[in-house]
Design brief:
Neuraminidase, 20% helix, disordered N terminus, binds zinc ion
């Protein structure tokens, strides 16, 4: 039997969400209704059902999410390709029109969350999806994606882009309305139109919608956006710097802790300076927090002692590979279908941090690394999944704490809290109203559809 239509999460595991925050129990009436369609729950239909964190509990929470999530009555489509509204009417009716049985698997290959076959009405769900580190929101999006496969719409192997070479990880284009279009639409609908969802979950959905729009189509979906540089001030405030508008700075929200911000596709992860604190998704406009880990590398980090956490200097999260930067080595995970890692050592110098001289690029295979003796290294994973770390010819004229590229401008942050524009070897001051007050920078995008 051939598993034709699976939802691919790759080792980098995009589909990680918050724990369900719905009410703790489902009424007997609701249970009866659910069991009338999904007969696997008929033994639970004669009384109220209370969530207990079990796989069954998480399945029921997801079904309830599809049944009860409230949206605005009027949901205009976007002027780009993020939201057409064609799957927006009733998620639950759409789902039960295609799926009648949910079969929980004992184990699945790495990166697989759920799948259906090219026949029948059973959806197979992998145990990973039913842990508390996935939210009902994410599961609902995956379930809708799988239901779309019942209508046809198999995936293809990506021939280019962040998921290049990954089997069954792309659709041709979003306008075809295949399963990844459903994924983008469900996240975009929550982000824009859900009326009763925590602001942090909406912000998470926004980033997820754009990430899938960017990464799962052979022809990337059109998303109206603007590149900005996110600044964190020493007094714990977020700002957006627009380099196309004479370095205009816009105040955003506050951040609870100073720390290093790592990009994960369109998501931002904060690694607090206080190593007693865990790393987590961070949102820039006072949306609050979501209560789950931001992917495997963060789960690993949070399981470490504060002393071990302090050893991690920087982290690159590409679509298919991850590099953890330590003072004397870089640890690579180059194969998205394997948890194997390999270390390459730095000789005669120590790492300072990643320099994104060519930008944070999820599809890219090479980044630069600043070191204490001034030598800039290049590192990455080749398409053949081989790690490399070697001295480069790149020169910098001063020490930087962080380097990012926004649009066509390469910006460096000095340890003193000032910005410089870097052109080749030479750097010149990039003056803003926050000179000397900048603690951290990271690239950020804002999007037309979401009005920010
Ligand atoms: Zn799929």
């Amino acid at each position: 039997m051939k598993k034709s239509f699976l939802v691919l999460m790759t080792a980098i595991g995009l589909l990680v969400g918050a724990t369900a925050s719905a009410a703790n129990c489902v009424s007997q009436n609701e249970m009866k209704e659910i069991a009338s369609h999904f007969t696997q729950f008929r033994n639970l239909a004669n009384k109220e059902y209370c969530y207990d964190g079990s796989q069954t509990s998480n399945l029921i929470a997801t079904i309830m999410y599809m049944r009860t999530t409230a949206f605005e009555a009027d949901m205009p489509k976007s002027s780009d390709e993020l939201f057409s509204g064609r799957f927006s009417s009733s998620w639950y009716e759409y789902f039960i029109g295609r799926i009648a049985d949910i079969n929980v698997q004992a184990s699945c290959p790495k990166g697989v969350g759920a799948y259906v076959y090219g026949f029948g009405n059973t959806m197979y769900v992998c145990p990973m999806m039913l842990t508390d580190s996935f939210s009902a929101l994410d599961r609902a999006s995956v379930f809708m994606h799988e239901a779309r496969h019942i209508d046809g719409y198999p995936h293809t192997t990506c021939s280019k882009g962040p998921r290049k070479g990954l089997q069954g990880a792309c659709d041709r284009r979003i306008a075809d309305g295949g399963s990844y279009a459903v994924t983008v639409e469900t996240y975009a609908q929550i982000a824009k139109y859900a009326t009763d969802i925590h602001p942090a979950l909406k912000a998470y959905s926004l980033a997820s919608a754009v990430t899938y729009a960017d990464e799962t189509f052979e022809t990337p979906a059109k998303v109206e956006r603007r590149d900005e540089l996110l600044l964190v001030s020493k007094n714990k405030s977020f700002f957006a710097l627009d380099l196309t508008k004479s370095n205009q700075i816009q105040a955003l929200g506050q951040v609870a802790e100073l720390g290093h911000i790592v990009n994960r596709a369109q998501h931002l992860i904060l690694f607090p300076e206080d190593k007693n604190l865990p790393a987590k998704y961070v949102f820039t406009k006072n949306e609050g927090e979501i209560a789950q880990a931001a992917g495997e590398s963060v789960v690993e980090y949070n399981a470490e002692t504060p002393a071990q956490r302090a050893e991690l200097l920087d982290l690159h999260i590409g679509a298919q590979w991850i590099a953890k930067v330590y003072a004397s080595k870089v640890r690579f995970a180059c194969d998205p279908r394997s948890s194997a890692t390999s270390d390459l050592e730095l000789k005669d110098t120590q790492a300072v941090g990643i320099a994104y001289l060519t930008g944070y690029d999820r599809a890219g295979r090479l980044n630069h690394l600043m070191t204490t003796n001034g030598t800039v290294y290049e590192f990455g994973c080749s398409e053949a999944k081989k790690p490399f770390l070697r001295a480069s010819t790149v020169k910098l004229d001063q020490n930087f704490k962080r380097i990012h590229k926004v649009g066509n401008v390469v910006v460096g942050l000095t340890p003193e809290g000032n910005l410089f524009q870097i052109d080749g070897v030479k750097s010149t001051p990039l003056t803003t109203s926050l000179d000397g007050q900048i603690y951290e920078i990271a690239p950020r995008q804002s999007y037309g559809f979401f009005g920010n």
